TrEMBL record:
PROSITE patterns: HTH_LYSR. SUPFAM superfamilies: Periplasmic binding protein-like II, Winged helix' DNA-binding domain. Keywords: DNA-binding, Plasmid, Transcription, Transcription regulation. InterPro entries: LysR-type_TF_proteobact-type (IPR058163), LysR_HTH_N (IPR000847), LysR_subst-bd (IPR005119), WH-like_DNA-bd_sf (IPR036388), WH_DNA-bd_sf (IPR036390). This is Transcriptional regulator.
Length: 302
């Protein structure tokens, strides 16, 4: 006998909106637009022949009947997710998600966190590539591309997920050898530079009203991760992006000798091809990136 099932995408949008109490939050979780969630909910309401939400000025509220409906179908979504995860591990060839990120971010932030993603989603394989090429110059197609932003590219959906600032950092051992109590003490230290952003140290020294300061030495690298590794190794002082040094600060490998001023920086953003925006793997990975980004930003901005 044929089952009378509602449109499953519409049901999924309703479940997320009802559980979160917000079309906006549901859209963020599902990695779609607010309008897409609203459209799917209206589709389900038309299929059921009854309203599901009471629309107020800035919020939505479940009708009593819809609340009872959500109480029944909510556990089914959880059961479906658990059954799918079990089947994915035991009986299905893992699907592969392709991700391209800038090199320093990938090495120092993404790779150390990938084990958590794999633990939560063992059914998803990840192919991770690095490139500093602008998005529009990439020759391959990827499911998710991570670059600075926010920028707008035709054919892509963009979402910021990780903010940062830049500030001097060095190893505790370096400060034991050569104390750094005032800005003027920088004259006794080696400043570590990144060739792609040569104005970081001059801009910071201008902010502290010492634009003419001459350090003991300068050392320049072509990638942030090399400059940061040199700082960890006690070679000198780097301008550290707070998002990329959060783990080193927590572990005590790096310290911040001067908490202010901090230089502003662009956010890290995920760029998803429009053709991939409804893909379950992409939605899952992007939701995980946003959660990790919130946790990392909260730590690095304090």
């Amino acid at each position: 006998m044929k089952r009378a099932l509602p449109p499953l995408n519409a049901l999924r949008a309703f479940e997320a909106a009802g559980r979160l109490g917000s079309f906006k939050d549901a859209a963020a979780e599902l990695h779609v637009t607010h309008g897409a969630v609203s459209q799917q909910v209206r589709l389900l309401e038309a299929w059921l022949g009854a309203p599901l939400f009471e629309r107020h000025n800035r919020r939505v509220e479940l009708t009593p009947a819809a609340k009872a409906y959500l109480d029944e179908i909510g556990p089914m979504f959880e059961q479906l997710a658990q059954a799918t995860a079990r089947y994915g591990v035991a009986g299905r060839v893992p699907r592969t998600l392709t991700v391209n990120g800038v090199a320093s971010f990938t090495l120092r932030w993404l790779v150390p966190r990938l084990a958590r993603f794999r633990d939560a989603h063992p059914e998803i394989d990840v192919t991770l590539e690095t490139s500093n090429e602008p998005l529009e110059n990439l020759k391959e197609t990827y499911d998710v591309i991570i670059r600075g932003g926010p920028d707008t590219f035709y054919g892509y959906t963009m979402r910021p997920f990780l903010s940062e600032e830049r500030i001097p950092v060095c190893s505790p051992a370096l400060l034991e050898r050569i104390p750094l109590r005032t800005f003027d003490d920088l004259r006794q230290h080696t400043l570590l530079h990144t060739s792609s952003l040569p104005r970081l140290w001059p801009n910071w020294l201008t902010k502290v009203e010492m634009p003419a300061l001459v350090p003991a030495a300068n050392l320049t690298f072509d990638h942030f991760y090399l400059a940061l590794q040199a700082a960890v190794d006690g070679i000198g002082i780097a301008m550290g992006p707070t998002a990329l040094i959060a783990d080193d600060l927590a572990a005590g490998r790096l310290v911040i000798p001067f908490d202010h001023p901090r230089l502003p920086s662009r956010s890290y953003c995920m760029y998803v091809p429009d053709a991939k925006s409804a893909d379950e793997l992409v939605i899952t990975f992007c939701a995980w990136l946003e959660r990790e980004g919130r946790d990392s930003s909260a730590f690095s901005m304090t």
